[in-house]
Amino acid sequence: MKSATRLRARRAQAAGAALALASALYAFRGGAREAMKFTRFAEAGDEDEEDEDEVDKDIRLKLEGVVIIVSGMILLSIGFEQGREVLFHRTSESMRPILTSMFSELTTLGFISVTLFVIFTIPWMETLSESIYGEEEGSELDELSETVHMVLFLVMVLFLAQAIGLVALGNSIQKQWRLWETSSINKLPRSIVGYVEDISRRPFAVNLFTHRLPVPYRILVYKATRDTFVRNHLAKTPDFDFSAYLSACLGHTIAEIVEIPMNTWLFFELLLILCWVAFFNLTQDWGLVMWLVIGYFTGPILAAVLHAKIRGIVQMHCANDIREILKAKDKKQIAVYGATGHHHGLEENYHLNFWCGSSTKSAFTLDMIRVVCLAQAIYVAVAVTTYVPQAFAASCGPAMAEFLCLDPLWVKCTFLVIMFLPPIIVITKMPRILEDFTVASNIDTMVHHRILSNVQRRSKTVAAFEALKVVQCLSDTTTLRAVLAGEMGEGSAGNVSKEFKERMAERNRKLAQLSASGRKQLEARQKRHWHHVFDIFDDDNSGFITTDEFRELVQKFGQTNDTSVIEILIKHLDEDGSGQIEFNEFLEFGIALEAFTESMADKEDMKAGMYRLVDKDDSGTITLAELFKLLNEDLGIHVSMDDVYNIVADLDEDGNGELDEEEFAVMLDRLHVYDTSTLDEVIADESTGEGLDANTGVTLFESVFGVSSMFGRDRSDTGGSDDSGQGNLAEHLLDPR
Fold this sequence. Notes:
- The protein has 31 helices and six strands.
- It is mostly helical.
- The strands form three sheets. It has a two-stranded antiparallel sheet.
- The two termini are 38 Å apart.
- 30% of the residues are buried.
């Protein structure tokens, strides 16, 4: 891979620089030694040989120290670069903008730290310190600079940890959305009606004081929002992957939070001045109390108010859809927060629903989320460097809070717990804030069209190469039979069959352990995925693939012109002998092909085979024109030349407008054509605990949220029971996806 080549080049450059530096230092050592010899000879030619050896030893030790320090810095730089490469590799593509912003901000903070270090090491700083604090306090500024450095360094560490935590948080939210996207919500607890009505009576109170809304209600809001979005913006693409769009928007949102703009720094500068004025007029004890107030106000309180506002916007946006769903099942008018006729409703101009929306749209709300994150990092840094040492000091100084350093240990510990509660509360609150803000700020008239276009382009590209994978498999009757049989014979490696069987057995074990809801998730995702591929083969949208359609696509790639071979391939797929390949038959083959590729230990040969499939002229490169013809003419996927250029631009590292085999393999990796595992993805998504298990029924609310008492509704009055004995369930009208 070219990324590995670049990394090796960086290491070679670093090693070369280290050798050059060592050579220069060695030369400097020789020159310094000769110069010192000449000076000693001129001043006192009869100097002792012992003194000369002492000077040589001193020079040698200093130069060795320089070499060790510089070598350590070079190794640290290489380690940092390697760590960044690993972090980027393990982070999903939609979350990578966060890492870019994080490293940009760390560079800025590092520059500030170096600047402060240079300023406070200037000799005249001691004179300035004496003029300000007196002659006996010449080192006061130095001590202050050390404290500032410590706080700044801690803020940098917390900032780095926060950014990495936001990446992990973003990945978790992505899994949750993927789970909801394909959740088939055929039934919902009856108590959801009571919950919706309760919110309509006191929306702000529920949204403000409810830390975590019930999962079924959140899924209902998500599905209603998704259907509204698709109806208004993508009417011709009913199976659009809304979760992929939101995931890309989430990465963009978190990246903006991490990248701190000038107005945020100015806000904290103003806050710093106000704190300085307040602390100047308060005792140390009251100063500590004020710091706690600041921590709680800029943390949990501001976060709760922000979340209540954002929740309300999302709920009002899909209120009419939710009301129609509940009305159809309850046969009566349901009061829904934000629906037409309700005293709470959306502004006609959607962006006006946000604070300062007329001038900033959602930017001001995003600034407030950023303030919460950064304020908590600063709050913790000051608490750790200033107040925690006071709690465990041996004696109480004049600049210490007395009830921190004089009270019993249990009082100190209690106070420290109270002090560190705000960041803990914010950490638990932030996932829901980011989840709801990402939805609220990227729908209706605030759709992010560039991200939407990228998601659509990626979806088409993935479907195209999955279709090519099918063609690649069908062109080799040996591979085709192996796929359908679910086994693989001995290969050139001699142990391929054993490894393949072990991987297939492991996959079957995972499949057997999958829950009922997990199986439904897997089936829904496989059905959606392979339907996109099926549509490429089905030129006339008839719902089945004819012999002519199949023959035309296979022959386009020059795999075979033998009609008898094509008939044999169709016979393998056409299980009912109708002469046509229906979707269910194609789906069965697609699932078998998916299991086959997942169990393959080495997929490089398959990537190379697909490259040869696309590079029809055997030129060794794939041009923009070839890729455009592949997608538009051969596969019938309507994309523009700009779309094709954008596919190639991110991968064409040498900038020649073409893809070689290595770059093509990178593209397949990014599109997860061969390395994806829908089964593993479902297992990972289900681990979030954010799904709706149909077998859970109303007990999900009772055990986690206590809705029966909250709603004051007797479930026995709301309906009968279904065949499974769950009872009290209402069918969900939203299209299961």
